[in-house]
Specification:
By secondary structure, the chain is mostly beta strands. It folds into two domains: 120 residues, Immunoglobulin-like (Sandwich), CATH 2.60.40; 93 residues, Immunoglobulin-like, CATH 2.60.40. It has one helix and 18 strands. Strand 8 and strand 9 form a beta hairpin. It is elongated and about 70 Å long.
């Protein structure tokens, strides 16, 4: 009898722990997702975890959003469908374990800027059981910059190539964290002659085109600032 009582207690404790768990919610893309200024949509992926051992109704709820007014807006695609922009709650029956969803942002070609939204996952039968909030961010980059890689271990500013150049050259840099990046060109007297980048960028290695048409031959400097990282290199324009 004592053994049966003990087993019943263990079962009750197991059931209580199982059904008192919160659903999981983890962003699987970087905090900031980079997309080209001429793109019309950007996606940021996430994993929803159903810990209950059986199919369970869960809803993904938008808490806040900050989207440029000239963008179309933010939406969500869960395990069943993609909802229209403006839908802030997505409810679906999730199987046990992990399921992939994504948040998407839409805009017209040529529109620039950054957007964020914060979401959480709730258990429909008990909304107090919910995940921690997760924030998703996307940002555009100006024409003339492209992302080469999204896997970077350290900050770096490479020497431009070709160098010397006439009239165009390329500059590569790497950032291991999502940062606001400023990349500017100065003449030998320290006067700013060109702003190449002034954007929030996600982790990655980037290549930037610099066209010196209209500038005189001579030595120039290019400087990057990304968070606390600062680096300066020189280049030579020969016409």
């Amino acid at each position: 009898m004592k053994k049966l009582s003990f087993l019943a207690l263990v079962f009750l404790l197991f059931s209580f722990n199982l059904f008192s768990q919160n659903p999981g919610f983890v962003r699987t893309d970087p905090e900031w997702v980079f997309f080209h200024v001429d793109s019309v949509e950007a996606k940021s992926h996430a994993t929803v975890t159903n810990p209950y051992g059986v199919a369970e109704s869960l809803r993904v709820v938008m808490i806040t959003s900050n989207v440029p007014p000239d963008w179309e807006g933010v939406g969500i695609c869960d395990i069943n469908i993609c909802y229209a922009i403006g839908i802030t709650v997505a409810t679906a029956l999730y199987p046990p374990g992990n399921s992939q969803i994504y948040i998407y942002y839409a805009k017209l070609p040529g529109r620039t800027g950054s957007a964020t939204s914060t979401w959480k996952v709730e258990r429909v039968s008990n909304p107090s059981q919910q995940s921690s909030p997760v924030t998703f961010g996307v940002t555009t980059a100006p024409i003339g910059i492209k992302q080469i890689s999204s896997i970077v271990k350290e900050f770096n500013l490479s020497q431009n190539y070709p160098n010397p150049f006439n009239p165009a050259t390329k500059i590569n840099f790497s950032i291991p964290n999502s940062e606001h990046v400023s990349l500017r060109v100065y003449d030998i007297l320290g006067r700013e002659v060109k702003v190449l980048v002034n954007e929030n960028l996600p982790v990655g290695e980037y290549e930037v085109d610099f066209d010196a048409k209209g500038l005189s031959s001579g030595m120039y400097y290019y400087s990057i600032r990304a968070g606390e990282y600062v680096s300066v290199k020189k280049m030579v324009l020969v016409k």
